[in-house]
# Entry
Amino acid sequence: MAALSEASGVSVRYGGVAALTDVDFAVSAGETVAIIGESGCGKSTLGRTLLLLQPPTSGNVRFRGEDLTALPARALRQRRRFMQMMFQDPYASLNARMTIGETLAEPLVVHGLATWRTARPRVAQMLARVGLDPGVTSRYPHEFSGGQRQRIAIARAVIAGPDLVVADEPLSALDITVQGQILDLLAALQAAQTLTYVFISHDLPVVRHIAGRVAVMLGGRIVEQGPPAEVFATPAHPYTQALLAAVPIPDPALARARMATAAALPAATPAPPNACPFVPRCPAARPICAESMPPLRDIAAHRSAACWLNEVPA
Amino acid sequence: MTETLLDIANLHVRFGATTAVAGACLHVSKGEAVGLVGESGSGKSATILAALRLHPADARISATRLTLGGQDVLTLPQPALRRLRGRFAAMIFQDPLTALNPLLTIGTQIAEVLTRHRALSRADARGQAAALLTQVGITDPARRLAQYPHEFSGGMRQRAMIAASLAGDPALLIADEPTTALDVTVQAELVRLIAGLQRQRGMGLLWVTHDLALMAGIVDRVVVMYAGRVMESGPVAALYANPRHPYTIALLESLPRLDQGRGRVLAGGPPDLTRPTSGCVFAPRCSARMPRCVQAPPVFAAGDSHVACWLAAPAGAEVAA
# Structure
């Protein structure tokens, strides 16, 4: 099946810093794919690159088969209706000077789907769908709680009927009980309008339950990929293992036992050029790991990993 | 009997028409780690700000008891209060960038606490500061002391803030969501670091958080707040294994777990704190609501556990407050 969104051989450099290095990543229609990894691993850059909010330094980004990097600006703007971004902090991403009605009508007006006047019924309908009172259109973002603002941000992202939504840590600013409500809402919208989600997150338990596939990123590369149930049960990359070992356990006895026994993970330090980015911290590193970056290779059906441990016998 | 470091009884905090805290009780003893858990609007932050008298000037505060190291926080003169803060009770914040001065080196900021609270000479302070950085797991402390906060990663900055908070050799450490914005691996290391420091130094620790998972391994006792009230408190093992207040149950059930389900969703939101209610504040969202919940429940005590819920009123339980 053709991918809805696809990055091939994508690299992004900011000045001399490589944010993404030769990344291949594809999402099919209707999928929920999670990207996890520490800050600076490139997960947000990859999300932004899929929408061409961040142009790649090299490589191609396709959407519905079309190379976005080759499109003229005007055509790209038209495609934006079908690919939207959702941010972590709805307070920062919503315009404080626009009413909720204007905030939601704007994407419809910008993409020529309605006028400010004719947008009104669709805005009211959208508000109801995200669980807000359709009567709040004349109010401003600061009048809402964090959870309500995230609902508004979600409504804005999906009102123009996108196919692809890249959600960058949409839950991390929210209380735990609100997170559950927002996850329910995202699932309901996905079912109702066949949305495809790229879900950037650091919350492994959430990813485990909402994503059909997870990509683990480190140092600007994907180092492991597969269905979360399998990846989290039998992680093939030592970095994935380290991430899993750091997931808080809401059980006092187990949490204490792990804290007493788990080895400390050294602080992140830069790896030599061409080396595996995990080499300075990896408890299982071998000489080859400091010399060359292992390729991302299939290790089982639907699973891949980039680690020499999976290739070279000890 | 163990020494009580922080003792709060029947605390009320009001801002304008908002009642942020309504009758909260909380205490931390020497060597004890207490988790104060609550979501936005639960009153947990207002409670700790009141405990250090750091609340905004327009807040109206009353309490039957509000003491730090046995001294009445609300009536203490400013100079004595300043000695108490930092020296007796130190605080670490969620965002070290707002707590650290960007224009001063890390060394200067730690040395400042040392010279102010411990009357050390500049040279001694410098040596002590380096020792503190080592204690919080920062390698190459001599070089690090000369650096500015922006030269530190998020996790390192948080370690530096912990070092600064320890400089006054506090008896009580108050940690307000100190790991929230950090990567999970960094988070796990910091939790381990703070727990270790607390044990080594025999400090009291008040860990303020919305995250029931993260603190499970480091606290002895948990206090759960909702809408300005304490819903439940008790020893950590009992509270996680056998939560008694429906809100505590809902919070624990809402946690997504790697090995179990996605978690159950608690519908609705917290009440409007500008509208006082005579009933239980959680009743509108409670799946175990009963007719008598229109009346606010008292706090029922059973051993070390306290529960503000009518469900916890079996024969034998007594009214504690």
Observations:
- The interface with chain B takes residues 38-39, 145-147, 175-181, 183-184, 202-206, 208-210, 232, 242-256, 258-259, 262, 264-265, 267-268 of chain A (CB under 8 Å).
- The first helix of chain A runs from residue 43 to 50.
- The CA atoms of residues 99 and 139 of chain A lie 5 Å apart.
- The mean pLDDT of chain A is 93.
